[in-house]
Write a structure and sequence with these properties.
The complex is a heterodimer.
Chain A lengths: L18 E5 L12 H16 L9 H5 L3 H9 L6 E4 L15 H10 L4 E3 L1 E2 L5 H15 L3 E4 L16 H13 L3 E4 L16 H9 L4 E5 L6 H10 L3 E4 L6 H4 L1 H14 L5 E2 L9 H9 L5 H7 L5 H15 L4 H7 L4 H6 L15
Chain B lengths: L15 H8 L3 E2 L4 E2 L6 E7 L5 E8 L7 H16 L4 E9 L4 H9 L4 H4 L8 H25 L4 H6 L5 E4 L4 E5 L5 E4 L3 H12 L23 H34 L1
Parallel strand pairs in B: 4-5
Antiparallel strand pairs in B: 1-2, 3-4, 6-7, 7-8
Classes of the chains: A alpha/beta, B alpha+beta.
């Protein structure tokens, strides 16, 4: 729980339940890399890491390539900044022998603490019938409620795919049929393939209007296509924004973070924004605090006519994800009073009924 | 080819500063900011040649993964900007530390098209460039409109403005405006309007209509939509500025990493 006593700003308010909606358990060790793209990929991630991490919290590149489950649990729960996490897989088998951050590897971590983690699946419409069977397996084995999609993933000669293609629609049909209702397309920085912009957000528009029963959580709020993303989201009520990549701007680009939040609140509103750390891109143990303490400037307040109020933050940090993933926060809080994570990290005080007194 | 610029008589070779100022209008198309101001240019070398100077421009982008299409645009624009100088014979581009530096450098220096340089690319860069140009001009429109609002106009009046309503007083560096409806206003800070006009002109915005501003779809602005259009322009500006923050942080991370 984010302890409201940690900041004057939330004094007297209840603590805030935090669901980190975008986390990974990856392996970019040199032994796992089979294509130079794999090396460039992790180095690019590492540039993002160092670019937005306080110096004293930076990892080394070696630590960053591959980390242990223990480290991950510590980064999440040691200071109690996060209550639950949602795994978003990224396979990248063309780059990594055993995959980069796979459904099965994620699920193995989640299996040890099923009350704390949610495993999402993934699909790639270029995998045809076999891919549909694989999606069924993920549902059956892990009861997934969501999928992470990486539209710029390489596959033999293909350098990406579109969410509004006929093949993708077959998979979205399958998701609807299986009750996999949360679709998380990664729409981040333009990298590959070459000129075609496989992270263009335009394909979300058609998919979202064709599948009103599904939710489309656009990861990285489309940056650097925030404008296209917001315009689509303003018209499609089932389109959401995941804050991964935008969130750490609160740390060293606070004015820009404020502007992005202002736009998101203006075009999407407070019910359709989800916090995510993108772990291990960034650590929630400092990022949550950083985002919780972000404030609009006076000018931004006037311009956007919105506030990062406690209620708004409560939604962004947890309630919106809880709604999409049918998480009953009160039930979870009761369960977490004495689960293994709470015992290991001594988090009992986070889940007691009483609001902590200001003296805590 | 190996003669140093200092060995040549003054006046025949462009100075380092001259090359730098020629490069200034070259923008990172995603951010609409000068590659010089962004600190991408690492090195400029000027050497004497029979028909004019040989110039070499080396640049590095914020990450090795920056879109090859964007890298290509910047490389081509830099080459063309330098080669446009009368004292320059040719300009060689060296993109450094990029996934596709070989293709970009070979293609640009050999005068190939993007499709020739990248045989597995699916289309040319023309569409990407025009999409980004439209975002850039919309973002500049936001700043220009803001300066008009500061001068006392309202959004409906701004929507009706034509280019001919702007009367520049070059001496005083201000623009007097004949506001539709008969009023009169003065903009004393003209930089944002100039920046908008420069980009709009380069995109041939005024070929068919003298209307100063447009919707993101390129239509004249209906008074009822004036506010929405302005908010969308603000969004374009926040997007470019926000991405600028991302690239800037990556650039800094890369620079500090390189010096470790």
């Amino acid at each position: 729980m984010y302890r409201t006593t940690d900041s004057d700003r939330y004094d007297g308010e209840d603590d805030i339940f935090v669901i980190d909606s975008h986390i990974h358990f990856w392996d970019a060790s040199e032994e796992n890399i089979v294509h130079e793209g794999g090396e460039e990929f992790i180095r690019c991630f590492y540039d993002y890491h160092t670019g937005f991490t306080p110096t004293e919290r930076e990892w080394t590149l070696e630590e960053y390539r591959k980390y242990s489950r223990e480290r991950m649990l510590t980064d999440f729960f040691e200071n109690g900044s996060v209550d639950m996490g949602i795994f978003q897989p990224t396979h990248l088998h063309e780059f990594y022998e055993e995959g980069f951050n796979t459904v099965d590897d994620n699920a193995a971590v989640a299996a040890e603490h099923p009350e704390r983690f949610i495993t999402n699946g993934r699909f790639d419409p270029r995998e045809g019938e076999a891919g549909l069977r694989e999606l069924e397996r993920q549902k059956e084995e892990y009861d997934i409620d969501g999928v992470k999609l990486y539209t710029a993933e390489w596959r033999s000669d293909s350098k990406g795919w579109r969410l509004d293609s006929e093949e993708a629609f077959r998979y979205l049909d399958k998701c609807a049929e299986l009750g996999i209702k949360n679709i998380h397309p990664h729409k981040g920085p333009t990298i590959r393939p070459l000129n075609r912009d496989a992270f263009d957000v335009a394909d979300v528009d058609d998919a979202a209007s064709s599948f009103p029963e599904l939710n489309f959580i656009v990861e990285h709020v489309g940056l650097p296509r925030l404008d296209d993303f917001c315009w689509i989201a303003a018209q499609e009520p089932n389109v959401y924004g995941g804050l991964a990549v935008a969130a750490p701007m609160a740390q060293n680009r606070p004015r820009k973070f404020g502007e992005i939040m202002g736009e998101l609140l203006y075009w999407l509103g407070e019910d359709r924004i989800l916090f995510g750390s993108d772990y291990a891109l960034w650590n929630p143990d400092w990022l949550v605090d950083c985002v919780m303490n972000a404030e609009f400037t006076e000018e931004q307040r006037d311009e956007y006519g919105v506030e990062l109020s406690t209620d708004v933050m409560r939604k962004i940090m947890g309630e919106n994800a809880a709604r999409l993933y049918d998480i009953d926060i009160e039930e979870k809080k009761a369960q977490f009073r004495d689960d293994a994570i709470t015992e290991e990290f001594g988090l009992e005080a986070h889940y007691t009924d009483e609001t902590p007194s200001a003296a805590d | 080819m190996t003669a140093e610029s200092t060995d040549e008589p003054a006046g025949t070779l462009p100075t380092h500063d001259r090359i730098q100022s020629a490069l200034k209008p070259v923008t990172d198309p995603e951010l609409d900011r000068s590659i010089v101001e962004l600190g991408y240019v690492d090195e400029i070398r000027v050497e004497a040649g029979g028909n004019g100077a040989h110039v070499r421009v080396a640049f590095t982008l914020p990450t090795a993964w920056c879109s090859p299409a964007f890298a290509w645009m910047m490389a081509v624009d830099a080459r063309d900007a330098v080669e446009a100088l009368p004292s320059v014979d040719d300009c060689t581009i060296e993109l450094r530390e990029h996934m596709h530096e070989t293709e970009v450098n070979h293609g640009v220096n050999e005068g190939l098209s993007f499709a020739e340089a990248f045989p597995d690319a699916e289309d040319g860069v023309t569409d990407v460039r025009s999409t980004l140009d439209e975002k850039a001009v919309l973002s500049r429109q936001y700043a220009a409109v803001e300066s008009l609002l500061d001068a006392g106009l309202d959004l409906e009046q701004v929507a009706h403005l034509e280019r001919s309503d702007l009367n520049r007083d070059a001496a005083a560096d201000r623009i007097a405006i004949d506001v539709p409806g008969g009023a009169f206003a003065v903009v004393t800070s003209t930089a944002d309007i100039d920046r908008y006009l420069e980009k709009a002109r380069s995109l041939d915005y005024f070929a068919e209509s003298d209307r100063l501003f447009r919707t993101p779809e390129g239509e004249p602005i209906a008074p009822a939509d004036a506010e929405l259009v302005h908010r969308r322009a603000r969004l374009a500006q926040v997007n470019m500025d926000g991405q600028g923050g991302v690239c800037d942080a990556l650039h800094q991370a890369r620079q500090s990493g390189a010096s470790d």
